[in-house]
Amino acid sequence: MPTSKQRREAARRHLERQQVRRQQAQTRRQKATLAATVGGILVLIAVVVVVVIMSSGDGGKSSAAASSSASASASASATASATSTKAALPTRAPAVINRAAKTSTGPCKYTESATALKAGNLFDTGLPPDPTPTPKTDSTAVFNTNLGKITVTLDAANAPCNVQSIKYLITQKYYDNTACPRSVNSGIFVVQCGDPSETTSGGPSYTTKDESLAGSKYPAGTLAMANSGADTNGSQFFFITKDSTSALGPKYTVIGHVTGGLDILTKVATGGDDGSNSAGGGRPNIDLIFKTVTVS
Predict the structure, then answer these.
(1) Against a cut of 0.85, is the pTM above it?
(2) Burial of 129 (0-12, 13-18, 19+ CB in 10 A)
(3) How far apart are CA 121 and CA 119, in angstroms?
(4) Domain extents for the chain?
(5) What does CATH list as the number for 114-295?
(6) Which single residue of 59, 221, 228, 264 has CA 20 to 30 Å from 252?
(7) Three-class secondary structure assignment of 222-260
């Protein structure tokens, strides 16, 4: 049986072993905590490094791309603004018409040209009606434009075949959404319109003869047919903004007179042009666009 001394000694050794185990457990906990802390710091450093690399690498590229895109957008906007004075209208291209030339059977004898049809500079409109006799009642054409309304009395008594043709084209909406391609404000004073190709060389698929040329005069407000020679009237016409009688001579069929909106036409003519037309003048600096044209 152990003595009291032996029991005290055993109790002391047991206590020492407990203290050692506690110390070891505490050391393990401290090491684990330290390892976790170090690991977390390393992860955080790695994240920061990745972010920095992305910001200076791909992120920088993205920023540069965004900056480049913004610059391009600004440049495009500036370009669009610089050219915004010219209308952006739907393009209507002339057609190459593969058919034999025709001539109407009435007194106006509207005539297609086989050569012109195949050249592809005309719009296929068919032929206007050509009744006998040709109507000679005046009518009113209304040009609803981007600058306001222009009204014209069409003089069928003076030019029945040409007026009948113009009225036909109006009912076909031929002139809707077209811009006038030429103005001249020196020598002659005109605003030329009626060509959907906006080249001054386009027209319908037929021509109309000249009418009542003898003694023709061209004071301000006159509406006359444009042509490329005798009996070549098509769809183009010009508004006279200032008397041009002496400069033009009796070569252009008069089809009407402006009764409202002459100030609009004068504004377009005096606004200048780009000088692009070899015959004089050019595309107006102030666009004149026919939104719709009606006749009654």
Answers:
(1) no
(2) middle
(3) 6
(4) 4-83, 114-295
(5) 2.40.100.10
(6) 264
(7) EEEECCCCCCCECCCEEEECCCCHHHHCCCCCEEEEEEE
> What pLDDT, on the 0 to 100 scale, is given for residue 129?
95
In the beta sheet, which residues pair with residue 190?
184, 240
Tokens, residue 3 = 């003595």
Q: How many angstroms separate the CA atoms of 152 and 163, rounded?
A: 12
Q: Taking Cα atoms as reference points, which of 293, 106, 273, 275 lies closest to residue 196?
A: 293
C-alpha 141/C-alpha 168 separation (Å) is 12
Instruction: Give the 3-state DSSP-derived string for 130-171, with helices as H, strands as E and coil as C.
Output: CCCCCCCCCEEEEEEECCEEEEEEECCCCCHHHHHHHHHHHH
pLDDT digits (tens, 9 = 90+) for 37-65: 656 666 556 655 544 455 444 444 333 33
pLDDT of residue 106: 94
Phi-psi region of 126 (alpha: psi -120 to 50; beta: other; left: phi over 0): left
Spans of the chain, pLDDT less than 70: 1-96, 115, 119-120
CB atoms within 10 A of CB 14: 10
